[in-house]
Amino acid sequence: MRIAVLGTGSVGQTVAVRAAELGHQVTIGTRDVTVTRAGEFAGWAAQHPEVGLATLSEAAGAAELVVNATSGSGSLPALAAAGAPNLAGKILLDIANPLDFGAGFPPSLSVHNTDSLAEQIQREFPQTRVVKSLNTLTAELMVHPRQLADGAHSVFVSGDDAEAKRVVTDLLTSFGHTDVIDLGDLSTARGTEMLLPLWLRLYGRLDTAIFNVKVVR
Ligand code: NAP
To answer: Domain with 61 in it: what CATH number?
Structure first.
């Protein structure tokens, strides 16, 4: 698949490398290619020539599947820059969390209870098939789940489009996930986004980000 990963941070880099390793054609999208090439990203990019770099609109326009790995507060502006026509009809795997660091650590959620960032994105881009997933895991575990408990832990998908969720589930399975739980429509992303306050406190407690929840039936 041609995949655009919007986001140059650790999530964007980690997902991009793994998808490329699995044979996908991957381009990372950023607001300003010149600025990004001149910054910290340059060292990483030099080690990963298999991953392209383009503007948000170029990356999204050329892709079959788009990953949102931008900051929570930057997601709507980043997707607006990617352009609604470039996102129309496409699957958007939304990994972002609506974290507000305005009052320091731990951050609060900028949207919660009766709404979610995923739903805000879906309302803004009604032609796009938004699937929320992977946002409850640290970047390394998103794409290499078997490094923890041999992969015996859970990941969730939320979305209104069954076919889009199937494509995302296949991608997750190719990463190594074995317990992908379809929570239902996109409003179920409220629950996974609201897992973040717990995740952040566990992170503080456990001194590692390599942990996850396992749903036991
Ligand atoms: P990040 O630092 O949260 O976000 C970096 C990206 O956001 C950059 O690509 C940047 O664009 C873009 N961005 C920031 N402000 C923007 C704005 N105003 N307009 C447009 N774009 C903007 O990176 P991250 O740590 O990799 O996290 C990415 C997302 O995944 C976040 O939503 C985070 O909550 C979520 N998440 C992270 C982890 C993790 O392990 N870190 C785990 C689960 C979920 P430029 O490239 O143009 O600078």
So the answer is: 3.40.50.720
